[in-house]
Write the C-alpha coordinates for this entry.
Amino acid sequence: MNPKTHPGIAIIDDEKSYADLLAVTLGECFLNPIHAFTQPQAFLDALPMLDLCLVVTDFHMPRINGHELIARTRRERPGLPFLLITGHFSELPEEELLKVPELRGILHKPFGWRKLATEILRVAPASPRL
Protein backbone atom coordinates (compact mmCIF):
# COMPACT_ATOMS: atom_id res chain seq x y z
CA MET A 1 0.00 0.00 0.00
CA ASN A 2 1.35 3.45 -0.92
CA PRO A 3 1.71 5.96 1.88
CA LYS A 4 -0.81 8.78 1.69
CA THR A 5 0.62 11.90 0.15
CA HIS A 6 -0.18 15.23 1.72
CA PRO A 7 -0.49 18.49 -0.19
CA GLY A 8 2.20 21.00 0.67
CA ILE A 9 2.28 24.33 2.44
CA ALA A 10 4.25 27.16 0.82
CA ILE A 11 5.95 29.85 2.89
CA ILE A 12 6.99 33.07 1.16
CA ASP A 13 8.95 35.72 3.05
CA ASP A 14 11.78 37.85 1.70
CA GLU A 15 13.66 37.50 5.01
CA LYS A 16 15.46 34.18 4.49
CA SER A 17 16.00 33.48 8.19
CA TYR A 18 12.30 34.02 8.89
CA ALA A 19 11.17 31.85 5.96
CA ASP A 20 13.59 29.11 7.08
CA LEU A 21 12.41 29.32 10.70
CA LEU A 22 8.75 29.02 9.67
CA ALA A 23 9.56 26.10 7.35
CA VAL A 24 11.41 24.18 10.07
CA THR A 25 8.76 24.88 12.69
CA LEU A 26 5.88 23.90 10.40
CA GLY A 27 7.79 20.82 9.27
CA GLU A 28 7.85 19.69 12.89
CA CYS A 29 4.11 20.33 13.26
CA PHE A 30 2.68 18.91 10.03
CA LEU A 31 3.08 15.88 7.78
CA ASN A 32 2.59 18.17 4.78
CA PRO A 33 5.73 19.06 2.82
CA ILE A 34 6.83 22.63 3.49
CA HIS A 35 8.18 24.70 0.59
CA ALA A 36 10.01 27.91 1.57
CA PHE A 37 10.63 30.76 -0.87
CA THR A 38 12.34 34.11 -0.35
CA GLN A 39 11.22 35.56 -3.68
CA PRO A 40 7.59 35.70 -4.80
CA GLN A 41 8.61 35.17 -8.43
CA ALA A 42 10.45 31.96 -7.52
CA PHE A 43 7.23 30.72 -5.91
CA LEU A 44 5.20 31.65 -9.00
CA ASP A 45 7.71 29.84 -11.23
CA ALA A 46 7.47 26.69 -9.08
CA LEU A 47 3.68 26.82 -8.64
CA PRO A 48 2.78 24.59 -11.62
CA MET A 49 4.87 21.78 -10.11
CA LEU A 50 3.58 22.07 -6.53
CA ASP A 51 0.62 20.28 -4.96
CA LEU A 52 -0.46 22.78 -2.28
CA CYS A 53 -3.23 23.13 0.26
CA LEU A 54 -2.16 26.57 1.54
CA VAL A 55 0.19 29.51 1.01
CA VAL A 56 1.52 31.59 3.90
CA THR A 57 3.00 34.83 2.59
CA ASP A 58 4.44 38.05 3.87
CA PHE A 59 2.69 41.19 2.65
CA HIS A 60 5.63 43.58 2.22
CA MET A 61 8.18 42.13 -0.19
CA PRO A 62 10.23 43.67 -3.01
CA ARG A 63 8.63 43.83 -6.48
CA ILE A 64 5.53 41.74 -5.65
CA ASN A 65 3.54 42.29 -2.44
CA GLY A 66 1.27 39.71 -0.87
CA HIS A 67 -1.87 41.13 -2.48
CA GLU A 68 -0.35 40.96 -5.98
CA LEU A 69 0.99 37.46 -5.25
CA ILE A 70 -2.53 36.26 -4.45
CA ALA A 71 -3.85 37.79 -7.69
CA ARG A 72 -1.10 36.16 -9.78
CA THR A 73 -1.55 32.81 -8.06
CA ARG A 74 -5.29 32.95 -8.77
CA ARG A 75 -4.53 32.70 -12.52
CA GLU A 76 -2.85 29.32 -12.01
CA ARG A 77 -4.74 28.01 -8.95
CA PRO A 78 -8.09 29.69 -8.35
CA GLY A 79 -9.30 29.24 -4.80
CA LEU A 80 -5.95 28.25 -3.26
CA PRO A 81 -6.18 29.60 0.32
CA PHE A 82 -3.71 32.15 1.67
CA LEU A 83 -2.70 33.36 5.10
CA LEU A 84 -1.04 36.77 5.08
CA ILE A 85 1.62 37.71 7.61
CA THR A 86 2.83 41.24 8.22
CA GLY A 87 4.74 43.40 10.63
CA HIS A 88 3.36 46.61 9.07
CA PHE A 89 -0.25 46.83 10.27
CA SER A 90 -0.59 50.58 9.71
CA GLU A 91 0.20 50.24 5.98
CA LEU A 92 -1.91 47.13 5.40
CA PRO A 93 -5.04 47.82 3.29
CA GLU A 94 -7.16 45.39 5.34
CA GLU A 95 -10.51 46.62 3.96
CA GLU A 96 -9.32 45.95 0.40
CA LEU A 97 -7.78 42.61 1.35
CA LEU A 98 -10.95 41.39 3.07
CA LYS A 99 -12.58 41.40 -0.39
CA VAL A 100 -10.07 38.79 -1.65
CA PRO A 101 -11.78 35.38 -1.41
CA GLU A 102 -8.52 33.41 -1.26
CA LEU A 103 -7.33 35.35 1.78
CA ARG A 104 -8.46 33.38 4.83
CA GLY A 105 -6.61 35.25 7.57
CA ILE A 106 -4.09 37.92 8.49
CA LEU A 107 -1.47 37.38 11.19
CA HIS A 108 0.41 40.34 12.60
CA LYS A 109 4.07 39.77 13.51
CA PRO A 110 5.22 38.79 15.99
CA PHE A 111 3.09 35.69 16.49
CA GLY A 112 3.81 32.32 18.04
CA TRP A 113 4.08 29.10 16.07
CA ARG A 114 0.97 27.73 17.82
CA LYS A 115 -1.12 30.62 16.51
CA LEU A 116 0.15 29.98 12.98
CA ALA A 117 -0.47 26.22 13.30
CA THR A 118 -4.01 26.89 14.59
CA GLU A 119 -4.71 29.18 11.63
CA ILE A 120 -3.36 26.60 9.19
CA LEU A 121 -5.65 23.94 10.64
CA ARG A 122 -8.59 26.33 10.48
CA VAL A 123 -8.22 27.12 6.77
CA ALA A 124 -6.51 24.17 5.08
CA PRO A 125 -6.67 20.38 4.97
CA ALA A 126 -3.31 20.13 6.74
CA SER A 127 -2.25 16.95 8.56
CA PRO A 128 -0.77 17.56 12.01
CA ARG A 129 1.90 15.27 13.40
CA LEU A 130 0.59 13.37 16.39
